[in-house]
Design brief:
single chain; alpha/beta; 8-stranded mixed sheet; 13% strand; binds NADP nicotinamide-adenine-dinucleotide phosphate
């Protein structure tokens, strides 16, 4: 199928929290949208807004040149689309189901010989942000499929194509999520240190602006070891955080681990934090 797909039909497989948001954004932008979900009632609101409810996965695929899948995980995705691969031939599958780089590469290798343009994607947004300026989605895999699906993908959030390796979007997605979970664990630790009574003010007044300010230099390639923050000073400060955490009755297991790493790096005479830190993490693995 080689139709020009600008403003053309799109199918969404999977109407969980995220799939429903994707379908709603496509409908809002004027794309004729066909939807399928295991629990069909989840399509009711979308159908009321003009979506077409398909009776089967195959019917849904056959309705559009671009098929977007957003399901729980790869086993569910494969269970649904592998039997319908015949219908997918000549179409473009944009898979926004979370998975690993190897899962993405294996699926691409399975589908591409059948004439299915496969693109894997990592959604860097929560459902309420889809279609808005803060949402962005990472894509990798078939460049041709990405270009053809682009008009629809632009409706969902900023579209970033990383390359032909289908595993790259997942790699970046999971790396970004690992940073988010690291931040979340630091946030919980900080909130626990100040205590429940102070957390309501501490969070918005101090924690959020502080994290935003600290995130900015990362974009300029700086780690936390720029010339204004020597490593020895940071190691001493980290020791104080560990001690204060204990003083507040808050276990500091993660921070203690970081402190040991940083102290080793300082003792070894490094003046750049990131390479030895990466080495240490790799060795631990
Ligand atoms: N929500 C987020 O904030 C977010 C952000 C970024 C990425 N994502 C990714 O988006 C994907 C979907 O997430 P979600 O938030 O939409 O999850 P969800 O609300 O739990 O929806 C899961 C979807 O998978 C379907 N499903 C589960 N098991 C199935 C099975 N055995 N057979 C057929 N369909 C099955 C569900 O169908 P039923 O409705 O019938 O159960 C539903 O459509 C995930 O890979 C997630 O990592 C989500």
């Amino acid at each position: 199928m080689t139709t020009d797909i600008a403003n053309s039909p799109v199918t969404v497989l999977g109407l969980g929290a995220m799939g429903s948001a994707l379908a709603a954004a496509l409908l809002k932008a004027g794309h004729p949208t066909t939807v399928w979900n295991r629990s069909p009632e989840k399509a009711d609101a979308l159908v009321a807004d003009g979506a077409v409810r398909a009776a089967s996965v195959t019917d849904a695929i056959e309705a559009s040149p671009v098929v977007i899948a957003c399901l729980l995980d790869y086993p569910v995705l494969e269970e649904l689309i592998v039997p319908a691969a015949g219908a997918l031939t000549g179409r473009h599958l944009i898979n926004l189901t979370n998975g690993t780089p190897d899962q993405a590469r294996a699926l691409a290798a399975r589908l591409e010989p059948r004439g299915i343009g496969y693109v894997d994607g990592g959604i860097m947004a929560i459902p309420s942000l889809i279609g808005g300026p803060e949402a962005f989605i990472l894509y990798s895999g078939s460049r041709d499929a990405f270009d053809r699906a682009r008009p629809a993908l632009d409706r969902l959030g900023g579209a970033h194509y990383l390359g032909e390796d289908a595993g790259l979007a997942s790699l970046y997605d999971l790396a970004l999520l690992s940073a988010m979970y690291g931040m979340a664990s630091g946030v919980r630790h900080a909130m626990t240190m100040v205590g429940e009574e102070r957390a309501a003010d501490f969070g918005p007044s101090y924690l959020v602006p502080w994290l935003q300010a600290m995130a900015a230099p990362i974009g300029q390639g700086a780690a936390a070891d720029d010339e204004g923050s020597p490593l020895g000073m940071q190691a001493a400060g980290l020791a104080n955080i560990v001690a204060a955490s204990h003083g507040q009755g808050v276990p500091a297991a993660l921070l203690s681990h970081m402190l040991t790493s940083m102290q080793d790096i300082v003792n070894a005479g490094y003046d750049d934090l990131l390479p030895p830190l990466i080495d240490q993490i790799r060795k631990a693995a």
